[in-house]
């Protein structure tokens, strides 16, 4: 591996006596795309906060480009979890994207025209040209999310941290944003992508970090997204099935609608859904349908 751009060494953190994760050793190379998966409350967003310098580790170290992770670094881009902006926010869409441009990059102040061209290109890439001059507070959640992606990519960061950036985007815009992030990896940006569903990004992912309260695993998708590995991590039987290049993760045991006591459930969705993956609620009916499909040979 080339010199890592992001490193965690024996990192650990917890709150109020509860350990979220510990002994986390991770090196991410320039241009690498790391997906971070795991149940609710496993500490995925906390990991991003550590890398943003917003949260201190209890043990170990976190470095970006060899220096301790710190707040406000222009070398780190961040697409936060979606939150609706107030209707009266005094920013147009293009202003929000421009905020992501480092006005003094490499010590040279951006020329106003260069800046406008760059903003226009970013707006176009996320499909936001039509509402470039609309106040952000009047836009839909998905439209605002596309602007956050454009803003985070504006400075071509060394590390891009994404906290469920595809949440609430329609399929077309999921693909557009994923393509944009993928393109950024070609330029050398390392991506840490927290998600509940691997399938929308499965073709972009180099490695997976899967976190659970019992421990974590790091490896390629094929190494980590396996029945034995997830069963060991959850401490309960989990099946991982592949269907047309997409993964279906399902629990073998349900108590009512839950997979295992104390664990938010991994998802089961109809295998025909191209977006199936680790995610929301599981119904016994879904389970039966899937099993029947499996018996009928529809799932390989
Ligand atoms: N500053 C804090 N003080 C106390 N507890 C915290 C703090 N930050 C996070 N936590 C707790 O740590 C746990 C992990 O939170 P985190 O948001 O990292 O989980 P997550 O894996 O991103 O979950 P989700 O998938 O639901 O977004 C939660 O129980 C949360 O309440």
What would your notes on this structure say?
With 300 residues, the protein is an alpha/beta fold. It is built from eight helices and twelve strands. The protein has helices at residues 44-51, 93-98, 112-125, 141-154, 171-186, 221-224, 227-234, 284-295, and strands at 6-15, 18-28, 33-37, 59-64, 67-68, 76-79, 159-163, 190-194, 207-212, 215-219, 238-243, 246-251. It has a six-stranded mixed beta sheet with strand order 6-7-8-3-9-10, sandwiched between helices. Helix 3 packs across helix 4 (141-154). It is globular. The two termini are 34 Å apart. Bound molecules: adenosine-5'-triphosphate (ATP). Adenosine-5'-triphosphate (ATP) binds next to helix 1. Adenosine-5'-triphosphate binds next to helix 1. GO terms for molecular function: ATP binding.
General form: globular
Order of H and E elements: EEEHEEEHHHEHEEEHHEEH
- Global structural class: alpha/beta
List the strand order in the largest sheet.
Answer: 6-7-8-3-9-10
Radius of gyration from the alpha-carbon trace, in angstroms: 20 Å
Largest sheet: 6 strands, mixed
The ligands bound in this entry are: adenosine-5'-triphosphate
Approximate strand percentage: 15-25%
Count of DSSP strands: 12
The mean pLDDT is 82
CA distance, first residue to last residue: 34 Å
Number of helices: 8
**Unreliable runs:** 254-300
Helix content: 25-40%
């Amino acid at each position: 591996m080339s010199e890592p751009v992001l490193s965690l060494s024996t990192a650990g953190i917890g709150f109020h006596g509860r350990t979220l994760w510990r002994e986390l050793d991770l090196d991410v190379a320039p241009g690498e795309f790391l997906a971070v998966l795991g149940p609710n409350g496993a500490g995925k967003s906390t990991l991003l906060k550590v890398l943003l310098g917003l949260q201190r580790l209890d043990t170990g170290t976190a470095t970006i480009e060899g220096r301790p992770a710190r707040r406000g670094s222009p070398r780190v881009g961040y697409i936060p979890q979606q939150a609706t902006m107030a209707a009266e926010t005094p920013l147009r869409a293009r202003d929000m994207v421009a905020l992501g441009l480092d006005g003094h990059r490499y010590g040279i102040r951006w020329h106003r025209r260069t800046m406008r061209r760059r903003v226009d290109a970013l707006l176009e890439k996320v499909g936001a040209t039509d509402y470039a001059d609309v106040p952000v507070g009047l836009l839909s959640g998905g439209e605002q999310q596309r602007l956050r992606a454009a803003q985070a990519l504006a400075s071509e960061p060394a590390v891009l941290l994404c906290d469920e950036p595809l949440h609430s985007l329609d399929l077309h815009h999921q693909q557009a944003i994923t393509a944009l992030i993928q393109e950024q990896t070609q330029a050398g940006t390392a991506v840490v992508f927290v998600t509940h569903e691997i399938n929308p990004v499965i073709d972009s992912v180099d490695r997976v970090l899967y976190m659970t309260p019992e421990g974590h695993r790091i490896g390629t998708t094929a190494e980590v997204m396996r029945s034995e590995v997830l069963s060991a991590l959850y401490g309960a039987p989990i099946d991982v099935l592949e269907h047309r290049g997409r993964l279906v993760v399902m629990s073998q045991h349900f108590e009512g609608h839950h997979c295992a006591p104390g664990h938010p459930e991994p998802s089961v969705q109809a295998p025909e859904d191209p977006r199936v993956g680790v995610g929301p609620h599981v119904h016994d009916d879904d389970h039966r349908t899937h099993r029947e499909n499996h018996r009928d040979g529809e799932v390989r």
